[in-house]
Each structure stands twice: as structure tokens, then as C-alpha cells.
Amino acid sequence: MATLAQPRSRPVTGPQGRTRGSVRHLGPNWYAAVMGTAIIANAGATLPVQSGVLHAVYEVVWGLSAVMLVVLLVARAAHWVRHTDQARAHLLDPMVAPFYGCLAMAMLAVGGGTLAVGKDVIGVSAAAAVDGVLWVAGTITGLVAAAAIPYLMVTRHRIDAGTASPAWLLPIVAPMVSAAIGPGLIPHLPTGQWRSAMLLGCYAMFGLSLLTVLAMLPLVLSRLIHHGPLPLAATPALILVLGPLGQSTTAVSNLANAAPAAGSSYADAMTAFSVLYGVPVMGFALLWLGLSAAMVVRAFRSGMRFSMTWWAFTFPVGTCVTGAAGLAGHTGLGLYDWLTVGLYLLLVAGWLTAFTYTARGLFRGTLLAPPASAPAPKPATV
């Protein structure tokens, strides 16, 4: 008689009995922490109130986001080399694969911050070079993700009806981030064809992302109406809907600002479009912010605990800050200045919360620990 049983997986413990994590369990969702940190500096640089102290803080936060990006790129490379099976499993998991869009947005956010904030630290020429490299890498990665992840959703993933997630927006919104960051590079490009190509290329990515988002958003809203609230741990993901709304408003504002430097004959039309598009979209963003905030409060009351989804409280809100700042500049309305400051305070509160809990989880080793093992199966006799 032989006894067959699967051994239980045991968590690795470190000093004082703390559970120690592994790079095996480092998913692409961790890039959201880089995005959420970089947007603190990027959005802060657009505030109507500036000072030397505030700028110094933005420089420190930008530096932190750059370090986080480098560390994560190295760690994720080790993940692919040492745990290829897990990395492939992530791509085939419909709940994890969309987060590959975060890789592109992390590079773009840090690159944009380098030119907006880091130029006073490393110089304008170096900042433009770094931003250019990260913009190209992030744009290529984002375009690949925007095509590849939906392809996998159609051909390889098995998605049940009524399971649409706001996270599905992540890969398709990455080109919108390229469209918002790219205009900052236009003054550093040669005049003529290069600048015009960047301007219109960014507009193309704006349209690519916007139309795909418009096709995806009804699925998310339908899931909520017909199947009720998201699971508690996934509820913060509702904030992700703000990302394409705020980022598209930011993109059209930045493109309008860059149009004269590109020598575009459409500069006046682009400025008018930035207002005619941005005002109603920002209105919808505020409506969604209220709806999602109510759902998050409901989840807190029901016992929602910290998870990496809490980083959704950062970057999407930050895009609304930069979008409101763009509207303030193009309309001259003080109302948008106040909105910019109010949203930024909300952003900082979300970042402090997510960063604190993430740092504590890393110190304790719980965030990278293996998933809880299932009960050991009963021995089978043969």
C-alpha cells in the first residue's frame, strides 16, 4: 500500500519569525507604485502655487520614483529569468495581464517628471535626453501592451460574463500617457518634420486610446449595474476609470500648448478643442470620482483591508490634477485653480496611505509572500 500526498508549501520565514517574500511573487502591478509616486512630482509642478520649498520636495519625490523604477526593472528582469513559468502564467491570467500596461506608464511618468522637475537637478539637456529615452521605451511598450493584452483576452484568456474589471483599461490607456508626455519633448526636437511628426503622432495615440476606452467603459459600467459592487479588495480599482479621463484632458491641453512650437497651423483649433473636450470630460471625471468614492467608503465599512490595489488612489487622481491645471491655463477660471489644489491634496493623502502600508508590508515580508496554501489533501491509497 502506497500513500500519495502533495507536500504543503511553507512560507519562508526571516528574522523574528516574519514571513519573507520572494521575487517570484512580484507582479507587474508593482509598477503602479512608481506611477503613483512620480505623479506627485509631475502634478505638483502644475499647481498654481509654487515655492522653493515645494519644488525641493518635488525633486526628492521625483528622485524616489526614479530609484523605484530602476529597482523594479531589475527585480522584474530577475523574475522573468528565474521564474519564467510564473511570468508566463501572469500573461495568461486575465486578472494580472492588464497590469503590464503599468510598465509603460511607469517609464513615461518618470521620464515626464525628469523634464518637468529633474531638469533643475541634472540639467535641461540631460533631462531631455532621459525623458526622450524613457518616452520611446514607454511608448513602444505601451503600444505593444495595447495590442497584445486585448489579443490575449480574445484568444487565450477565458473570461466569464459579468467579470469586466476597470483594470482592463490599464494597457489601453498607456498610449494616452505617451500623448500627454510627448508634447514636452517637442521644443527639444529639430524644427520642421520632427516636431510636426511628434505633435500629430501624439494626437494619433490620443485617438487610439480614447476610442478603445470608449468601447471598454460600457463593459465596466454594465458589470457594476447588473452584477453589483466589485469584491472588497478590488473596489479601489474603480478609481482607475479616472485615468483615461484626466489623462486625455491633460493630453489635449499639453498638445495645444506645444502646437505653436511645432509650427502647426492648427494651433488655435487645438486650443479651442482642449477646452471644448476637457470641460465636459472633467465634469464626468468628478461624477465618477464621487461614485467610486462612495463605493470605496462602503468597502471600508465592510472590512476592506490594504492591498496593492490601493495604489489606484494615486496616479488616476494625479491625471485629473494635471487636467484641471490645463483647463485653468486655457480658460483663466480661478475655479479650476481651486479644483487643481483640492484634487492634489486628495492625491497626496492617497499616496501617503498607499506608500505607508506598502512600506510596512515590505518590511514585514507579507506583500511578497507566497499565497496562502490550501489545506493538505487527504492521503489516497492505491
Describe the protein in words:
The protein is 66% helix and 1% strand. The longest helix has 35 residues. The protein is globular. By secondary structure, it is mainly α.
As laid out across the biggest beta sheet, the strand order is: 1-2
Mean pLDDT: 91
Low confidence ranges: 1-20, 373-382
Number of helices: 12
Which descriptors apply to this entry?
two-stranded antiparallel ribbon; 66% helix; 382 residues; disordered C terminus; single chain; 1% strand; globular; mainly alpha
Task: Give the SSE map.
Elements: E1 3-4, H1 31-44, H2 52-82, H3 84-91, H4 101-116, H5 119-122, H6 124-155, H7 169-181, H8 193-227, H9 242-258, H10 267-301, H11 315-331, H12 334-364, E2 380-381
Antiparallel strand pairs: 1-2
Helix pairs in contact: 1-2, 1-4, 1-11, 1-12, 2-3, 2-4, 4-6, 4-7, 6-7, 7-8, 7-9, 8-9, 9-10, 9-11, 10-11, 11-12
What's a quick, concise take on this entry?
The protein has about 375 residues and is mainly α. The protein is built from 12 helices and 2 strands, in the order βααααααααααααβ.
